[in-house]
Structure formats: C-alpha cells, structure tokens
Amino acid sequence: MSTDIAHEEHHHGPPKGIGRWLFSTNHKDIGTMYLVFALTMLFVGGASAMYIRAELFMPGVQFMEPDFYNNMVTNHALIMVFAVVMPAAAGLANWMIPMMIGAPDMALPRLNNLSFWLLPAAAVMLILSTVVPFLPGGGSAINTGWTLYPPLSIQTGMAMDFAIFTVHILGVSSILASINIVVTILNMRAPGMTLFKMPMFCWAWLFTGLLLIIIAPVLAGGVTMLLFDRHFGTSFFDAAGGGDPVLFQHLFWFFGHPEVYVLLLPSIGVLAMIIPTFARKPLFGYNSLVGGMAILFTLGLVAWAHHQYTVGMAAGPTTWFMIITILISIPVGLMLLNFMMTMWRGAMTFETPMLFAVAIVLMFSFAGVTGIMLAVVPADLEYHDSMFVVAHFHYALIPGALMGLLAAAFYWLPKWTGNMYDERLGKIFFWWNVISFNITFFPQHFYGLAGMPRRIVDYNPAFADLNMISSLGAFAYGLSHLLFLYIVIKTVRGGVKAGNKPWEGAQIGTPGLEWDLSSPPPFHSFTTPPVVK
Ligand code: CA
Ligand code: CU
Hints:
The protein has 533 residues and is mostly helical. It has one domain (17-516): Cytochrome C Oxidase, Chain A, CATH 1.20.210. 68% of the residues lie in helices and 0% in strands. It contains 17 helices and no strands. The longest helix has 36 residues, at 66-101. It starts with a helix and ends in a 40-residue tail after the last helix. The structure holds calcium ion and copper (II) ion.
C-alpha cells in the first residue's frame, strides 16, 4: 500500500530542479512563469517611465539626450504592452482556464512551453536594442515610439533591426499562445460545460485569442516590409520609390487598435469574476456581456484609422472611422452597466480585489469620455500628439488592463498559494496605487489641452507646475509596486490558510470548477474530468 502511494507521488508530484521550469508542460507552472516574467518586466518598464518623468520634472534638458528620451518612451510602451500586460494575462489564462472548464491541462502543452520561452528571448533582444546605440557605430536608438512609423524607422540605426526581430518573436509567441487558449476552450471543456456556462473570464480570453490570431500576423507583415525597405532595396513605405508611408500606419493600426482590446478584455473578464463574488449576486446580464464583447470584437477590427486622422485621408473613410469609433462606446457602456447592475443592491464588501474593481469601473468610464473627445475628427485634429492623448490612454490602460491584473492577483493568490494575502497591506496598496496614479495622469489632461506635445524631451516653462505634480505622482505610483511585490512574496511564503473556497459565496454566478479544487490545487488539476451538474 505504502509503495503504491510512493509511486503515485513520484508519478504525479512536480519534477525537481530547473528542469521543472525549463521543460514544463504543466499549465500551472507555465502560468506561474508568465506571471513572474510579467512582474519582473513591470519593474523594467516602470524604470523607463521613471526616467521619463524625472526628465519632465522640470523644463530644460537635465538628464538625457533627446534620442535616449525617445528610446525610453519606445521601450516603456513596448515593454508594458508586450512584456507586462500580455504575459500577465496569459499567465492568468494558463492558471485559470483549465481549472475553470474542467480540463486536465492546456490542449497543446508543449506548444505552451514554447510560447512562454520565446518571451525571455524577445526581452533580451529588446534590451540589446537599447545597448546598441552606445556601441561605436551603433547609430541612433529606436526613437520612433512603439508605432515604429517610417520614414524615421527606416533612417534609424541597427537598434531598429533588433526591435523588428523582437516584434517577430513576440508575434510568434502570441499567436501560438492564442491558438492554444482558443483550442483549449473549444475542445477541452468537461462534459456539461457548454460555452454559455463558462465563467466569463474564459469568454474574454476566447475573444482575446481570436483577435490576436487575426491581428498579430498583420503587424509581423508590416515590420517585415519595414525590414525589406531598410535592407533589401524595396520601397513599400518610401514615396520616392513609389511607396506610401501612410500604408505602414494602416498596417500598424489594424493591429494596434484591436491590440488595445487584447490588453483590456482579459481584465474585463477578471472584473466579471470579482464583482459577482463581492456583491454576492450572479453576474447581471451574462448573455449581454458575451454579446457586448462580440460587438466590441467586430467593431474594433474596423475602427483603426482614428489614430491617423491627421494624415489627410479622404472625407469618406474619415467619417466611417469616426462613426465606428463612437459606436464602440455602446458595447463598452453596456459592459460597465452590467458591472454596475451586478453591484446594485448587492451585499457588497470591499476587500482589495473589489476596491480595485469599483475604482476601475469609475476611472475606465472617465477614459471613455475622453475617448469620445478624441474620436471626433475636428477635435482630434487639435488634440493629436498632445499629452491629452497620453492622459487618455493611460486612464484606459492602467485601470482597464494593469489594475485589473493586479486585482486578479489579489483575487486568485489565495487559490494559487493556499495562503491569504495580508488584507491590511492590500488596502494600503490599493489607496497608494490609485491616488498616486491619479496625481500622475489627471494633470496631463490640462497641460495636454494647453498644448504640450507628447514624445518631446523638453517643454514650455508654462507647463512646469503641473509637470512637477505629475512627476511626483509618478514616483509615488512607481514605488507603490514595491509594496505589491512585498505582499506577493509574503503570501507565497506563508500566511493564514485560505481554505478551499477563499471567498465565501464565490460560486454565485461563477459556475467555474476552480472552487471545487483545494487551495493550492494539486499539481495536476484532475485525474478524471469532473461533470458539471
Ligand atoms: Ca527636463
Ligand atoms: Cu484605437
């Protein structure tokens, strides 16, 4: 008998040593690696933001060459989008989706390993691109911003080739991970788990995965054409050779606009899990939320050129893109209404995940309002390339993506580790994080509207006071994440046992199977898939 148990332990327990991680095909271990990678890169991308805000602390150029400043702007964006938010969301998908749908693992476990391990390679390439300009003959940095617009991106130095290769590797990683997630959701559900019984997080990731499969190849194609223009004598984007620089903008934003939903949707899925739990009511309007995401998915694919009103498109397409963009506020408004109706007359409590959820709904709504301002063509012609745009999309993406992921960490850490996080520290983190975020970005609306351009190292002294406030807020905001790191480490190392249902009433409106598993769950989710009653 005892030898049988020992044999079982040997067969089902986690493998030992570095091989456990390098060769892992286990969805929880790969999920953990994604999350650790994202958290590490949050501090790298955050450091570049701190550089930016240090330089903008006062007018005049104090710390850096303009070229390096633009490099920091570019790195900050590329890292936050591709190395923080997307990997963190993929980490949540890996950890939760198999447990939520009653699957033993992801559908394609070896592909899963490859999708993850491509990421550190891409990160190394991106860091090299920052080093290259400092080498003799290294040329200029990637100073284009994350949009990599030609002709500037054709004129820049060797660093751009590293950036292009980075984007290629990231694209391969995203496409493979998305295929895996979509296949898992479509093929691996336990008997009885129909699509419309899935926890909303799975729906959010189904749309996210499909979007990425459509858009990532277009970006890859665009940067490949850029590479050909740089090295192989083509002129796709060079007017002198019969090409069209605006073509690149269309390719980039056909990717770039839906990419915003790739960043937002997983966090919307997280909110749809957290809010019913802490309102102790089923999610209001499950079907309408799925429908809202489907409409968002569809409209999002045909709205891209609102990023380029200023390039001189004809009136017809310009009007189309304006109308579609404004229409997008309808499904987004519906989602927010779903969340508010879920809270309405609920028996709400405000643990850290719920505090974040409420704050996200408020701040994301505000980003929606400034988004409408930017969607309107004559207004956008004034706001374009100003700090107002920077303020707008940070209100969309920090609450809408990053804070949603932080909320998810608080929500699921007890399930992952078996330990409760320190609620007092969690609440301190919430207030510190949200208040300093607003101090950073709220003033940017005003100096943006007053005419301060984005992506420029220096500015008119008239904007000095508000910029100083922004920078002070940014330093506090950046520091707050050290407290998050501390809370996570403390929770992993121990704490009050969470129990198998860490949040009482958590099953209300969330028919997922994850709450039927112990905290922490066994190394393999299920020996035999359970049946949904
Ligand atoms: Ca300065
Ligand atoms: Cu857009």
